[in-house]
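Researcher: Re-running this chain for the archive, since the previous output was lost when a drive failed. Same request as before.
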Amino acid sequence: MDAEAGPDGLPAGLPEGGPETGKAKGGDALKLRERAYESIIEKLIARDFTPGEFVSQRQLVARTGLPLGAIREIIPRLESEGLLTTVPQRGIQIAHVDLNLIREAFQFRLFLEKEAVAVFTTSASDETLAAIRAEHEAMLGRALARRLTVEEEAEAQAIDWRLHDTFIDALGNSIIAMAYRVNSVKLRLIHHERYRIDGRVVPVMREHLDVLAAIESRNPARAAEAIAAHVNNARRLALTV
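Model: Regenerated structure tokens:
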């Protein structure tokens, strides 16, 4: 017979310090909070949660396998980052993809990436640029030659995201990197809803190669213009789909 349900739909009568409550001390509590945060972020990126979906704390516990106490403690952080919203009488809502989110997320991305690309243009080694170019040209070649498999399209998407992360990493600024990461989660929610790379590998790789050509010129202004054109193209697509 099932145990009687207590608050949040979890079984009543559990030990106060048991795993379901997540009541740990000191460093253990901090580790649990970070694991809970990282788990939810990973599931948002993997689309295990649907934008706009309502979930309960119990469902978050079930999906992450982490204690209720840790889940409760990281909800305010996720709310402050705009990834979750607590709605009275309904529960916790995953960030909803709407026109305002699209405009704000892409504007934030544009501001950061223009500066990041300008810095990367003067700091990246020739070897790094050659490796990035080779990766993109190989994927473009495959996409031009035949229809890509689902796995290859996923690989192309990883190449896409990795390039943009590389630009931000060139700044060497942990505050910017953390803010960019949160915005990237929102962009990936938008991506899943609005402009998946499926069937678009050729134009994306070509736009990236245009950006790389500008970087290879070692002209920061030209590189900033190229990344702005690329980001604005993605924004227009997200707004019109």
